[in-house]
Design goal:
heterodimer, A: alpha+beta, Rossmann fold, 2 domains, 6-stranded mixed β-sheet, 8 helices, B: mainly alpha
Chain lengths: ~375, ~290
Amino acid sequence: MAEFLEFKNVSKRFGAIQAVDGVSLEIKRGEFFALLGPSGCGKTTMLRIAAGFETPDAGQVFLAGREITDLPPNRRPVNTIFQSYALFPHLTVRDNIAFGLQIAKKPKAEIDREVETMLRLIRLEDQAGKKPDLLSGGQRQRVAVARALINKPGVLLLDEPLAALDLKLRQRMLIELDMIHDQVGITFLYVTHDQSEAMSLSDRIAVMNAGRIEQIGAPAEIYEAPRTSFVAAFIGDTNFLEGVVADHPEPEYSRLRIEGLPDATVYNDKQIADGHKIFLSIRPEKIQISRDRPEPKPKRNAVPAVVEDVIYLGPTTKYWVRAGEHRLQVLRQHARFFLDEKPIRWKDDVWVFWHGDDGFMLEGFRRDDEKLVAAPPQKVGEA
Amino acid sequence: MKNLRRRGQEFFLTLPSFFWLSLFFLIPTALVFILAFRPADPFGGIGRGWTTATIEGLADPQYLAIAWRTLWVSFLSTAFCLLLAVPTAYAVARAPERRRNLLLMLVIVPFWTSFLIRVFAWKSILHPEGLIKKTLVFCGLVDPSSQLLYNLGAVILVTVYTFLPFAILPIYAAAEKFDYRLLEAARDLGARPFQAFRKVFLPGIRQALVTAVLVVFIPSLGSYIVPDIVGGPGSEMLGNKIAQRVFVDRNLPLAGGLSIVLILAVLAPLLGVLALQGKKARIQPPEGGGKP
């Protein structure tokens, strides 16, 4: 199906800050699309441009083929769920939900029927007469969803809708939002800085940084095949390794010369020629850790290392290890609690190894992005 | 036990204001009430015995016309004050923070001059030889023989001028705290700018609007100086009549009777508001308030 909501070279500046910098984006009908990025990356400005609260300095916005760039918010068939929910405090839940239809001067019988349907959808029939400040955070969020959906918008815009909720509630609301999206089948544009929200809900994600889009793709694509160091470091954790392509033992695989480490075999889907410098991103959970030297296998890269830090995280443990000049983070899931094996501890000598397919060559690399990978401070010799 | 002690504390804390109000408000008001039921003696004093003649005499059409005019002038002044104060307060509240303080200063600055002087200033502004009259005549907008001063229009104008800051300040206080994202939400749901203003902003500052109505309407009911200085015989209000009975006729019981009318007129809107709020409080318990 053709693109439904489309941004064409959209730019917006606030004073000295270029909030959105020439962004083009196409969202398909019925898609759950997430704009993901750190605060200040321009994702909220994009959403406000889609809603009509901001007019772009340059560029155009199209909805279902019609240009809406200069249309005021009340004349756009889009509705927003605000981060603060922005429920009207002087109206009851029922009147909040009915607001859009009342403004549209729909007949009363129709309004009543639609409101009842919405109340059933969000399962708040028994709270309909209450004012919003008597509701819990999750209930308010659901009222905000109903108040927007009752207008049957072409696109539903969601501005960090779960940010104000605690973890357990957030997990429940995630499932609920997903169910609602499946039920109503309209296009969702979801703005968030939380990668796990974006991952679990979206059909596609656009990762934004400093007013630009770094990468657009399905969650797995973004995670497994990040194009830039920013995407690799912002979505999940990663290790960066710098190296030079030495030669191609196989057509698809290159040998990478990394300073201070043995040569590594890596998958070279981008066909980078010999002699070029590249950066590699390896996710911590793709690296394995063991006391024993792993048996050599084709495309397996193994390096001896020393454990510098052990961080127990519940379902997983994170190890910071030093291999030559490099510090790597390794994530290991506890298949079973360490009863029958000796746990790996601080200062232990270990081997870390990974398969050549799991190191991913980056197209773009910025030194600054290394700071996104939180490394613990260097330990000075304690006993 | 604990509750009882808190009750006691509350009681002692309210004692000073209770004495103050009794001494300077309740007792004088009661005296005025008593006065209205005493006969007047021809020498300006108060006679012996009791009579209801004064109160019955208030049914005189002359007084009814003045009472009606007092209500009407106060109502119009309040309406104009709100019409000016709401957009002003909205604009100030939405101005950048640094400019906001300057604008607020401008609202408050007239208080630095005595109220009397400001009313006299209006007298010279509206004077037949004054700037406004001459400009209007020059532009051919008014007849040279017309009068800007000493009429109902002048009284309403100066009353609005006098009470406007008192209306702006409470509305500004509410407008400044208002969550303007709600207006965006309303626009998002299809409301035109003015619809959003009327359906979301005005209800959001409802409490302040009530306050503004009370602080304008009640004092204008008791206006005396403004109609006395810029008004004429056709724009007399209850306050002027009371003053005349006291200073000119020296008929204190009649002045007392008129004052009762005024006090009741002041109490009526107040009690109305209190009753409305009491009803609302019963219907909707405050957050965490348990059973209604």
